Amino acid sequence: MRTILAVLLLLFAAGLSLAERCPDEAVDRPHFHIGVSARLFEKVKRNDAAAAFKAWGTSLARERGMKEMVDAFLFDEPTIMRSSLDSGELDGVCIPTDELMALGLKTDSVILPVRADGPTTSYALIVHRSSGIEEAAGLQGRRVIVHEGSGMSLGQGWLEAVLQEGAPKGKRRTADLVLTEKPMKGILEVFFRQADAALISTAAFEVACQMNPQLRQDLKVLKVSPPLIPVVFVFNHRFQGKSRKSVEEAILAFHQTPGGRQVLNMFQSSRMERHPISVLDETLRFISGRTDLQVLARTAQ
Q1: pLDDT tens sequence across 128-141
Q2: Of the residues 95, 225, 286, 295, which has the fewest C-beta atoms closer than 10 A?
Q3: Would you call 288 helix, strand, or coil by DSSP?
Q4: Which residues contact 112 (CB under 8 A, 6 or more apart)?
Q5: Are 81 and 34 in contact (CB under 8 A)?
Q6: Are 270 and 75 in contact (CB under 8 A)?
Q7: Over the stretch 78-102, which tens digit does the pLDDT of each residue have?
Q8: Is the CB of residue 150 less than 8 Å from the CB of residue 268?
Q9: What average pLDDT does range 197-220 have in this prediction?
Q10: Where do the DSSP E strands lie in the chain?
């Protein structure tokens, strides 16, 4: 889902704007304000994302007759986002799940970007079959290409956990991590023996293998993560009433409008779904067990 997911319904309404938020920036409050984590965007696609959201907002206003003005703000710091939530400046946020834990939001449900196979993402660590690497410990000091993006927000935490499996007490294994915004770049570097391994989503690997069956013959999956939910949208619990209902209906109807489908396609999702907060139980347990992912929570508190 880069996705991924996934996901950004940041969204709505006629005249949607995607703006960089600064802590000292004055807020001219419209009807609805949504905060979006900068971690959900490939840096080179921020303008494309803004254009997609504006197109969605325009089509939504036309097809649903919504007149509310909605602004989306891009946040680089979760602490600033939390302050904006506490002050009531934001009515909802679209964020990586580890930032949800960091912000400590009160909610009984979440809205998730969903593909045909569901809302979860699994990560795959792939190597060349002739590399001689049979376990993650063999990546010590090796070059590993890491796909970064919305659906990959928990990937590096999982990779770190895998690298440390079975490591001697007091000794930490490290690899030479190289970030890329394109999963195919990682796959091809491993294929041509320019890198020792790549961290990508299992979905990205399956798509690549369907396009080029030779990849499955020459590459193998060394390890697969448990299914995780990397991206969520939640409302500020203070935002209630008819406006919230109309906004939520609009998000869940993304797949029914041309503009909404444009946004979903950008994040490789087919629709948005509302789920009880319990859907995040396994993902939150994973985050709780990763001290590196808990840094956000300690910082935001």
Answers
A1: 999 999 999 999 99
A2: 295
A3: helix
A4: 7, 119, 229, 231, 232, 233, 272, 273, 274, 275, 279
A5: no
A6: no
A7: 899 999 999 989 988 989 999 998 8
A8: no
A9: 96
A10: 17-20, 32-37, 70-75, 92-96, 109-114, 123-128, 143-147, 176-180, 197-201, 219-224, 231-235, 271-276
